[in-house]
Design goal:
With about 210 residues, the protein is mainly α. The chain has one domain (about 1-195). The protein contains 6 helices and 4 strands. Helix 2 (about 40-65) runs antiparallel to helix 3 (about 75-100) and helix 3 (about 75-100) runs antiparallel to helix 5 (about 140-155).
């Protein structure tokens, strides 16, 4: 188990640092509906993830999860560092690889009219990217980021359960949550991309 922990941390750290380096080198590439630079986008995501991690640390504190960290300020600090660290690694790997591979970071509504087609597009968008050439490609940045973060967190959290199983479950849950977010952007009237509906073509995607 100790060998697994050391190996996981080393591999994730190497990927994280490399992804950050490539992400900064590719900062001039524009992405997203607001044409934000990748480095600016990364900074905003880190700020958002920090707030989210601190909030979920409070939830974990109330649940006393994991119990080994106790319900103390020290325990909250460990939970906060764990959640925020997991997010930093996930986003660093995801956005770094996306910059290297020239992949988009945001889901873009399909522009189709049928409800089933729109649901299918949102779910597919969790695992596939629409490239600049209009082709669907496996979302390697997103998948790698989700599992890099989950395996890293599993390696440092105290647990009596199978760390690999927990990491795989958490990584899969992260991708599933991404699909839920895609559904919001596809169907919500408050989504920034709602204007693309019913256009008969993919909004913001190469035709």
């Amino acid at each position: 188990m100790k060998r697994f922990t050391r190996r996981s941390v080393s591999v994730v750290a190497a990927i994280f640092l490399a992804a950050l380096a490539f992400g900064k080198a590719s900062a001039q590439v524009r992405v997203g509906a607001d044409s934000a630079r990748r480095l600016d986008r990364f900074g905003r995501d880190i700020a958002y993830g920090t707030v989210e991690g601190l909030a979920f640390a409070g939830v974990d504190q109330m649940r006393d999860d994991p119990v080994e960290w106790n319900r103390s300020w020290s325990g909250y600090g460990k939970r906060a560092a764990s959640n925020v660290g997991e997010f930093y690694i996930q986003e660093g790997v995801t956005e770094g690889l996306a910059a290297v591979m020239n992949r988009p970071l945001d889901y873009q509504p399909c522009g189709c009219r049928g409800t089933l087609d729109r649901v299918r597009s949102a779910l597919k968008g969790a695992l596939f990217d629409r490239t600049q050439h209009g082709h669907d490609a496996l979302a390697i940045p997103r998948i790698a980021g989700a599992f890099a973060g989950s395996f890293a967190q599993a390696s440092w959290r105290p647990t009596d359960s199978d760390r690999r199983r927990v990491a795989l479950l958490n990584g899969t849950t992260s991708l599933a949550f991404g699909a839920v977010i895609n559904l919001y952007h596809e169907f919500s009237p408050w989504s920034a991309n709602s204007r693309c509906r019913g256009t008969g073509g993919p909004c913001g995607r190469p035709r």
